[in-house]
Amino acid sequence: MQSINSTTPSTDGNQPSSRFSLSNIFKQDHERYDGVPKINIYLLRILYTLMFIFLSYDSWTHILNHKGNWGVTDATAWCVWLGYGAISWIGIINPLKMLPIVLLEIIYKITWLFVVAFPLWTKNELTGSPVEGTTHVFMMVILPIVAMPWRYFFRTYVVNKRMA
After folding, report:
1. Kind and range of the H or E element at 136?
2. What are the tens digits of pLDDT across the range 38-80?
3. Taking the CB of residue 79, how many other CB atoms lie within 10 A of it?
4. Residue 29 in 3-state DSSP?
5. Which three-class secondary structure state does DSSP give residue 63?
6. Model's pTM, two decimal places?
7. Nearest to 143 by CA among 106, 107, 118
């Protein structure tokens, strides 16, 4: 009988089993990721990749095509987003080290949704408004909320203990 982790072909002609399995991605990985399940690592890498691609592209496009003088707030926002996108590549390589930028993303998007979009929605003025498109993008805040390994985050960044 062939082991589930074997990489040699079996004698009955079946393909060997892979070490990857759906059940393994939900298990904690104490060896490589301080007990964070692999699914969180995969989701974080996808999130950082999306941040790198879209924030960098949108920011550089807006900055390079801008005409005239910059408003202070507008320039600050675009430069922060450019920097945010640029450092997100670190998260692709070391997903757990960049969790504070994921928390920043969660906080600023939820805050914006409550401060800007929610009042318009309650007055039935969101549809067709200039903020409608941003609202749809910011509603995707569910992705970083799901990807965030919350127990690890609190253990490492709030309580500052390796084992909670």
Report:
1. helix 132-138
2. 889 999 999 999 999 999 999 999 999 999 999 999 999 999 9
3. 13
4. strand
5. helix
6. 0.75
7. 106
Hey, where are the domains in the chain? 30-158
CA distance 14 to 54: 43
Model confidence pLDDT, tens digit, residues 92-102: 999 999 999 99
- Runs of H (alpha helix) within 15-98: 30-33, 38-50, 56-65, 72-93
* Cα distances (Å, whole numbers) of residue 155 to 15, 141, 147: 42, 22, 16
Return the closest-CA partner of residue 140 out of 39, 43, 61, 74. Answer: 43
CA nearest to 105, candidates 74, 147, 71, 162: 147
Amino acid (one-letter) located at 118: F
d(CA 9, CA 11): 7
Q: 135: Cβ–Cβ under 8 A, 6 or more apart, which residues?
A: 113, 116, 117, 126
